[in-house]
Amino acid sequence: MRVLVTGGAGFIGANFVRLTLATRPDATVTVLDKLTYAGNAASIPDDPRVTLVQGDIADREVVDSLVSETDLVVHFAAESHNDNSLTDPSPFIHTNLVGTFTLLEACRAHATRFHHVSTDEVYGDLALDDPGKFTADTPYNPSSPYSASKAGSDLLVRAWVRSFGLAATMSNCSNNYGPFQHVEKFIPRQITNIIDGVRPKLYGAGANVRDWIHVDDHNTAVWTVIDAGRVGQTYLIGADGELSNKAVVEAVLVAMGQPVDAYDHVPDRPGHDLRYAIDATALREELGWAPRYRDFATGLAATIDWYRDNEAWWRPLKRETELAYERLGR
Ligand code: NAD
Ligand code: TDX
């Protein structure tokens, strides 16, 4: 099976490529990645079954040619960081909307199977005391330019399924953590700050809740949906991992042998979503998927070890990332 992975040099995509090589002996993988600030060729394993093509998913010619030679497209490529979308939304519109449109058109032309990777942020946020969680029936209500552009990309996929009969599935996942995540994101930022002797930074009071899932569990779920999901269907992916940001910072500090209160509060993110929570019942009951990492502390400890052991991977990104946060006062 020839698999085209867009964004395969990014966090989740690179872990997906690794999982695919390890579990699918018949698969060959082509990664299409622009290698933006968030992409790193070093995240892709050196393997004869993998080819990296540096290119833009909004480039029609490149996309059409690669899609014509593939059996399955798994679409991870995106501008993915909320904070960046508040500073400059423009690349979010280009990649998440025009890029997804370009892929859809190529898949339509070549009748290629498509899987679209998306986020729970398209549903907006929940109150802290809301007993409910997001389901596939929750109305879209995105808050940031990032989540609005992802919501738009989801709707494009749905339209291509309905209007053109595209064989596509979709998944919306909660917050991922694990190896190869850019140090701009919450958990790796705090781990690498502590390694550098810098205090972690908590936005606002830290009451906001995220529903954490290990990246490998996200990716086994993506393969489950590709293998067994119904075409045209959206599956929500989550592992019942709700934690406040304050609880996460404290867990990182304790796991790294620091005092539990050795962090700073910094100004809050504008429009900051309060709480995300996924109801993954359909995925579990209809498709029989279950997460392997059921305990956040275990997954977090492995992730901390990975950042300790792989400083050469993240060190070149750290200074520039922190300078950008400094400019935002965060
Ligand atoms: P990331 O920012 O780590 O990686 C994105 C990758 O896409 C990078 O390698 C980048 O170079 C590439 N890319 C960006 N623009 C491109 C373009 N125009 N053409 C080709 N490649 C381009 O992101 P991630 O955290 O790995 O997220 C992957 C996907 O999963 C995204 O679609 C995101 O919305 C979704 N998602 C992420 C999370 C999370 O917690 N990180 C949760 C749910 C869903
Ligand atoms: O230094 C920080 N301090 C802090 O308190 C950073 C970087 C973040 N935060 C907070 C903001 C969020 O409530 O931590 C939480 C997580 O922040 P991010 O890592 O930026 O993730 P989030 O905005 O929740 O979005 C992530 O999950 C959904 C991914 O970046 C998205 O791509 C995905 O769609």
| Largest sheet data | 7 strands, parallel
What does the overall shape look like?
A: globular
| Number of E-type strands | 13
Record the strand order, biggest sheet: 3-2-1-4-5-6-11
Provide a descriptive summary of the structure in words.
The protein has a domain at 2-181 and 213-241 and 276-293: NAD(P)-binding Rossmann-like Domain (Rossmann fold, 3-Layer(aba) Sandwich). It contains eleven helices and 13 strands. It has helices spanning 11-23, 60-67, 82-87, 90-110, 145-164, 186-195, 215-228, 245-255, 281-287, 296-309, 311-328, and strands at 2-6, 28-33, 50-54, 72-75, 113-119, 168-173, 176-177, 201-203, 209-211, 213-214, 234-237, 242-244, 264-266. The strands form four sheets. The protein has a seven-stranded parallel sheet, with helices on both faces. The mean pLDDT is 98. Bound molecules: nicotinamide-adenine-dinucleotide and thymidine-5'-diphospho-beta-D-xylose (TDX). Thymidine-5'-diphospho-beta-D-xylose is lined by residues 80-82, 119, 121, 175, 185-186, 189, 201-203, 208, 210, 245, 269.
